[in-house]
Amino acid sequence: MKKLITFSAIVIPLALLVSSSSFQAKESGGLNSPLQDTAIKFKDGTYEGQSKASYTDEPFWGIVHFQLKNGKFTDICFMVRDSNLHEPFDAKYEKHFEGNPEYIKQSRNDWNGVQTYPKKLAETQDINKVDAMSGATWSYNIFRASVQDALKNAK
User: Fold this and answer.
1) CB atoms within 10 A of CB 150
2) Beta strands in 1-155 (DSSP E)
3) Within a 10 A sphere around the Cβ of 33, how many other Cβ atoms?
4) How far apart are the first and last CA of the chain?
5) Which of 22, 56, 127, 137 is the most exposed place for a label (fewest CB within 10 A)?
6) pLDDT tens digits, residue range 19-69?
7) Is 27 helix (H, G, I), strand (E, B) or coil?
8) CA distance 139 to 129
9) Which CATH number among 3.90.1010.20, 3.40.50.2300, 2.40.40.20, 2.60.40.10 corresponds to the domain 41-151?
């Protein structure tokens, strides 16, 4: 009998808590729905952002340009520039790593990211839904930080 009372004392409050949480989630539009009052609205216009992301000891700057039209990203351009060598990070940049196949591979992966991330942003229309590509995390972090820098002026 004591086991039944102890069991009831634990299970009944727990069941009430779960059903209360479920009701609140339904009232707010479900567990995964965003709350409407916290949505960020961006102004239409042309924006530019720059960032080194967390790579502050490196000479590379990400630069992004895009337009917001009717709240949607369009005309997205992204580049990474080496400020020491005064040249863009592009398909030819791997020449600086001649004889080092690991760095050449990394350079190619990140160049692929530089080309792909703007397309992904145009598709998803949300920087938080653009996923990093395997091997191209460096360019992803710089792209993401550059977009976030540009969006500061769009709020």
Assistant:
1) 22
2) 45-51, 60-69, 72-82, 87-89
3) 9
4) 62
5) 56
6) 444 444 444 444 443 433 334 688 999 999 999 999 999 999 999 999 999
7) helix
8) 16
9) 3.90.1010.20
Tokens 């609140």, residue located: 24
Instruction: Supply the DSSP symbol for 134.
Output: T
| Residue whose C-alpha is closest to residue 60's, from 84, 77, 90, 76 | 84
**Per-residue pLDDT at 41:** 82
CA 122 to chain centre: 13
Report pLDDT for 115.
98
Q: Are 111 and 17 in contact (CB under 8 A)?
A: no
Angle at 110 between CA 99 and CA 131, to 5 degrees: 150
Rounded to 5 degrees, φ, ψ at 100 are -125, 90
DSSP bridge pairs for 89:
80
The strands making up 72-82's β-sheet, listed across from edge to edge, are 45-51, 60-69, 72-82, 87-89
CA separation, residue 142 to residues 64, 70, 104, 107, 153 (Å): 10, 26, 19, 14, 18
Q: At 138, phi and psi to the nearest 5?
A: -60, -55
